[in-house]
Structures are given as structure tokens and as C-alpha cells.
Amino acid sequence: MFFKKLAEAAAISFGGQTKSGSRIRFGALAAISGGISSYYFLSSPNLIYLLSFNFIGYFAFFSALNPDKWIEFKLQDKVQASHNSQLFRFSFDPNVKLGLDVASCIITRAPNGQNAEGKTKYVIRPYTPISDPEAKGYFDLLIKVYPEGKMSQHFASLKPGDVVEVKGPIEKLRYSPNMKKHIGMIAGGTGITPMLQIIDAILKNPDDHTQVSLLYANVSPDDILLKKKLDVLSASNPNLKIFYTVDNPTKDWLGGKGYISKDMAVKGLPGPSDDTLILVCGPPGMMNHISSDKAKDRSQGELTGILKELGYTEDMVYKF
């Protein structure tokens, strides 16, 4: 109920830690690599977790994720976030962090039939958790459910207690406090998730003075994900400015109308500068309009679109 009320009211933070009555039992040593690095299996009645225990001097770090192995995480709860999006909370040992850096994502997979040899085929998709990377025992995913989306339909079919296979983290942009004086963000739909990860990291750090400007595009006002949370963050943090635009505005809509334009970018983003970074994440059509999508090899590729026309250079723009 706590989870559902927060999602309905503001989706500001799911807070807290998952409850677990199971005790951790350490198993066999699996590997030693990269200096002194040991892997231990932890078992519970329903799940098996692989935790990484890395020593650097006297520093020890536990992580529920493994970049080289698929790990099962149990669905604790899910709620409707919008008419076509859902919030999912997955749980694991409450004494352990997920092991996610800002900004990075995870890879998920689900069975999708069999190949000619009778082996299981999988559909694989990346997602960016929106929960605090420092949180222990849980992570949250915000997923738009598409009618023909194989992975999103799989997530929508999950019930509490079901598991999903996860690998990671997959590092995207390595964010560090005050790396730029001003960060501009352009997001479309669920492209808000990596932006929110960075926004949260900036706002919770009193020593990070980065100015953030977000342009957030959606189809309609009802499609704006986490708007209440974003509005609260913007109202309480003067270094965060947000401008919304929608393709199909309602009669009482007071924000922008239509696709993100040059004029919106000029008014809502920091100008081209060595101390400016523009982050872009959204559907392919928006990406091509704003900056071009990534190259086929998933490198950043060439910069085109309105950002190129406005004088930004490739080293000023990062595409998620």
C-alpha cells in the first residue's frame, strides 16, 4: 500500500528497504581476479544471488549485480504509473546495494520460444533503474508497455513473486559532481529515466552545484512520466529548470506544444560552451530530429539535427 500510494500521489521516492526474513548463507569461493576479488553465492528460499566482494586496500564493496552472469531478481510489487506505463520494484538481499553507477543501466532478458535446435531464445532489453543507486535491497524500473513490445508485455505479465533475469551494470556516461557547469537534457517518453538518475545524483549532493535544464517531450499531458516528482524537485531546487512540451495538448495545457524546436532549445538549454553538456534520450524519431541516433555499432556517431544547427559540437553532446 505504501508503494501504491506514493506512485499515485507523487512517485517522489519509493523509499525504505525490502523486508526479508531469510538469512544469508555464504557458499563456495567462485573466482579470484583483478587483485583480490572473490565471488560468493548467497541463497534464499526463492532466489540465488551472485555477489561480488572486491578488496582494494581495506575497502570492501558488495554488489547484487554481475556484468558477466544473468541473476534472477524477484518482483516485489508493481503499480500503474500512467495509462500505458508501470512501475516495478524488484527485491534482493536488504544488506546489499545493486551496484549501479551514475549513469548506467541494466540488461534484462526473457524467454521467447525456441530456435531450430530446441534451445531457448531470449528477448533482451536495457533499462535504467530510477531508484537511488545507493539503496539497499531493491531497485525500481519504469517501463512503458507497448502493445507489440515483447519485453514490455513480458514485464506487464509478471506477478509479485515472479523473477526476471538481469545482467549489469552497463556503464553509459560516467557522471562526476561538477563535471560541467551546466547540463542540458532533452528527453522523450521513457528517455527520462537516465536523466532522472543524474538529476537525483546532483540534487542529493550539497557539494554539486551543477545547473540542470530539462526539455521533456511527450505525446500528451497524460503521457508525462513522473511529472509530480519532477515538479516537486524543480520547485524545491533552484538549480533545476524543466520545460514540458506535448504533441496533443489539452485545452488547459500551459506548457509547450509540438516537437522540441530550435526556439525551445535556445530558450531552455545552456548555449554551446566548453562548460556545457547536452544529454539526449528518446525514441528514434526524436533522436534524429535533435541530434541523430547512435551509430550502428552503438558509438556516439555523428552529430546532426537541431543541436548541430545551433552550434553544439560532438564533444558537447551525449546520446543515451
From TrEMBL:
Belongs to the flavoprotein pyridine nucleotide cytochrome reductase family. InterPro entries: CBR-like, Cbr1-like_FAD-bd_dom, FAD-bd_FR_type, Flavoprot_Pyr_Nucl_cyt_Rdtase, FNR_nucleotide-bd, OxRdtase_FAD/NAD-bd, Riboflavin_synthase-like_b-brl. Its cofactor is FAD. It is found in: Mitochondrion. SUPFAM superfamilies: Ferredoxin reductase-like, C-terminal NADP-linked domain (SSF52343), Riboflavin synthase domain-like (SSF63380). Pfam families: FAD_binding_6, NAD_binding_1. It catalyses: 2 Fe(III)-[cytochrome b5] + NADH = 2 Fe(II)-[cytochrome b5] + NAD(+) + H(+). The chain crosses the membrane at residues 24-41, 47-65. Its EC number is 1.6.2.2. It comes from Rehmannia glutinosa. Residues 68-176 form the FAD-binding FR-type domain. Its main location: mitochondrion. Keywords: FAD, Flavoprotein, Membrane, Mitochondrion, NAD, Oxidoreductase, Transmembrane, Transmembrane helix. Gene3D superfamilies: Nucleotide-binding domain of ferredoxin-NADP reductase (FNR) module, Translation factors. This is NADH-cytochrome b5 reductase.
